[in-house]
Amino acid sequence: MSQGEYSVCQFFEDGSHEYVQRYVSVQEAVEAAEHYCHSVAAQMGITQRVIITDNGDCITFEWKYGKGVIFPPKGEDK
């Protein structure tokens, strides 16, 4: 896949959301998602969900508060 295909979005307990990265490489998206999944807000439950989407708006990664990484399923990540 080429660069610039991925976006990272975090969702908050109040129902709002924020794109923290738009149209970046897979490496940049994974690094950003890892940061937001381990942030203070995530540890406190303020951040409830973090996703990475590709340019087709398909979810390629999903983390949820209290559950951890739920997609891809364990054993399917690379």
Short description:
It contains two helices and five strands; from the N terminus they run ββααβββ.
Task: Describe the protein's topology.
Blueprint (H helix, E strand, L loop, with lengths): L5 E7 L4 E8 L1 H12 L2 H5 L2 E7 L5 E6 L3 E4 L7
Antiparallel strand pairs: 1-2, 1-3, 3-4, 4-5
Describe the structure in your own words:
The protein is an alpha+beta fold. The chain has one domain. The chain is built from 2 helices and 5 strands, in the order E-E-H-H-E-E-E. It has helices spanning 26-37, 40-44, and strands at 6-12, 17-24, 47-53, 59-64, 68-71. A 5-stranded antiparallel sheet has the order 2-1-3-4-5. Strand 3 (47-53) and strand 4 (59-64) form a beta hairpin. The longest helix has 12 residues, at 26-37. The mean pLDDT is 93.
